[in-house]
Amino acid sequence: MKRNYRLCYRPSTSPTHHIHEVFYDDQDRVILYEREPAVAFGDDVPELYERCAEMWKAFDDEPLDLDRMDKKIFIRMINEEFNDVYDKHVERKKTEDK
Question: pTM of the predicted model, to two decimals?
Answer without folding.
Answer: 0.78
